[in-house]
Amino acid sequence: MLKQIKGLHHVTSLASSASVNNAFFTNVLGLRRVKKTVNFDAPDVYHLYYGDEVGTPGSVMTYFPFQNAARGKRGVGEVGVTSFSIPFGSATAWGERLATFEVENVTADVRFGQNRILFDGPDGDRFALVETDDDRTPWTGNGIGADMGIRGFQGADMRLADGGATAELLKFMGYEKTDHADNVTRFTVSGGNAANSIDVETLPDAPRATSSAGSVHHIAFAVENRARQLEVREALLDTGYQVTPVIDRDYFHAIYFRTPGGVLFEVATNEPGFDRDEDTAHLGEALMLPSRHEHLRATLERQLEQLP
Predict the structure, then answer these.
(1) CA 24, 27, 28: angle at the middle one, nearest 5?
(2) pLDDT at 150
(3) Alpha-carbon radius of gyration of the chain
(4) How far apart are CA 147 and CA 136, in angstroms?
(5) How far is CA 227 from the centre of its chain?
(6) Beta-carbon contacts of residue 49 (< 8 Å; ≥ 6 apart)
(7) Measured between alpha carbons, how far is 92 from 148 in angstroms, rounded to an integer?
(8) Which of 50, 151, 156, 302 could form a disulfide with 85 if both were Cys (CB 3.0 to 4.6 A apart)?
(9) Which CATH architecture has domain 8-303?
(10) Those residues with Cβ within 8 angstroms of residue 96's Cβ, 6 or more apart along the chain or in another chain
(11) Which neighbouring-strand residues pair with 48?
């Protein structure tokens, strides 16, 4: 069993509008945009990062907004819900806030003893705000106080036709089964950050998901550094997984592999961080380009949708 995984690092999804996406995460949810850059493989598409003050691993939601992309179809083989941590007693206030912004499909429930507010993002992506015991510091610069502020991720739900093989993978990655109810099993990793839970929802009769706007592209797990990442990569290869070489993503190093249930996993380093090329006070303000795309700056600044 691996010991290097420290919880979630980030979750990356697809969107249909950069401006709508930016407004939702900064104005409605009150997160900080910590990086405005572009997709390494499609530089005419933004890559937007939202999180706490510095984009701490375990707090960062990222998006590729492909303008006017069709909405994806929900099903199995995907991350169905991305969950954020909020303070105890704040779920009701969040429900009221979301209603004020006319957020769609807001509901409340309790899972494994935790109060949740569930809702849809602009492209139908499903989220939950979960009341947890969490001492992480929220970003309050966008007008939401510390009594409500999002602390980072609580975890994520994977919707699978058969959860057995993925459960074994999570156990191999250091997660332990900690709860089960109906068709949902919770796995938790200890000794890392507070974004430490994965819920596996088994839906054997559901159709397969179709990925597009509103879909999670991949879910990333955190390791401390490149040395620990190489250990994880070697162990996954030895187990039979097809794992990419290490890829430099400027703000972290990444490896990717496809899980038995169809979800794309990434393992990302906590280093070097989002302040490697911007001062903390001004994170996410300027367009930061990968060095290989710097020669396109004039064209991209003209063509990309303008963001505040």
Answers:
(1) 60
(2) 98
(3) 18
(4) 12
(5) 23
(6) 10, 33, 34, 35, 36, 37, 55, 60, 61, 62, 251, 274, 284
(7) 10
(8) 151
(9) Roll (3.10)
(10) none
(11) 36, 63
The residues near 164 (Cβ < 8 Å, ≥ 6 apart) are: none
**C-alpha to C-alpha distances, 276 to 13, 31, 191, 209, 215, nearest whole angstrom:** 23, 20, 26, 36, 29
The percentage of the chain sitting over the pLDDT mark of 70, rounded to a whole number, equals 100
**Strand partners for 198:** 156, 187
Q: pTM (2 decimals)? A: 0.97
Task: Give the domain ranges of the chain.
Answer: 8-303
Query: What order of strands is seen across the sheet that includes strand 114-120?
Result: 107-111, 114-120, 126-131, 78-86, 152-160, 197-202, 184-188, 176-181
For residues 41 and 249, the answer to whether their CB atoms sit within 8 Å is no
Separation of alpha carbons 58 and 303, rounded Å: 32
Residue pointed to by tokens 């979960």: 130
SS3 225: coil
Contacts of 19 (CB under 8 A, 6+ apart): 305, 306, 307
C-alpha 53/C-alpha 225 separation (Å) is 21
**58 DSSP assignment:** T
For the chain, what is the largest distance between any 2 Cα atoms, rounded to a whole number of angstroms?
Answer: 54
Categorize the per-residue pLDDT at 50 as very low, low, confident or very high, splitting at 50, 70 and 90.
very high
Task: For residue range 211-225, list pLDDT tens digits in order.
Answer: 999 999 999 999 999
Enumerate residues 6+ apart whose C-beta is below 8 A from 62. Answer: 10, 11, 12, 13, 47, 48, 49, 50
Q: Rounded mean pLDDT of the chain?
A: 98
